[in-house]
Amino acid sequence: MLPVAWIELGAMNTGTLNRRLFLGLLTPLATAQVLPYVPKQSDRPEAIEGDESGFESIFDGKTLDGWQGDSKYWRVADGLMTGEITPETVIKSNTFIIWQGSTPEDFELKVDYRITPEGNSGINYRSVVIPDKVTLANRFAMRGYQCDIDGQNRYTGNNYEEKGRLFLATRGEVTHVTGVRKPVILSRLGDNMALGARIEAGWNSVHLIVRGNVMIHNINGQMLSMVIDDDPGRQKKGQIGVQVHVGPPMRVDYRKWRLKEL
What we know:
This protein is mainly beta and about 260 residues long. It contains 3 helices and 17 strands.
């Protein structure tokens, strides 16, 4: 049953709308607004449990709905998105499974992964699909920024532009990219090998923060690389994709994909 106030409002003629009643109906909306944070001198930044508001799942854990890739290499089972190369399906070109939902520009992306010791993968973003000159039948080759991932952790956390400008930052670096010279190291986040030791043999959590010309790669709560890209020709928006790489048989699993577009 509708509240009396709503019944009365519906029965009123627009020209005789009771202003007091109308304002009374708006009052709950005003009080429901979130109040601004007022900092205190004693306050310090703090860790939070879970995700901030605004993240949405882009993988249902049951199907590849919303994603496109070659089913020879990609499947879903037990809540996992799995990319696998077997001895019978060794590839000559990198291939991707690509999210079809949007082509985000500024965003945060979170996902967990695990990879076999000989595996090589990566999470592409602001990327585009391009023709594959080596494997003409491959409809899922990509060019664009990549958070590199490999089972030996030689490259994990790097910012590597697939089929583009290549190494933009290696693990432990904050770099500046201009397009007229090699990327320049502005600062160091830590020793490459020491940071690599923080990556687990099992599940790891990736958090990408991409805003304007700044790209941050975090894994397990540790920033591993940051790129400040002032190249006028840089890709400013594009698709998200996940790679299986040329090389020996391998397997990589992904779960809990969450995206927050800004």
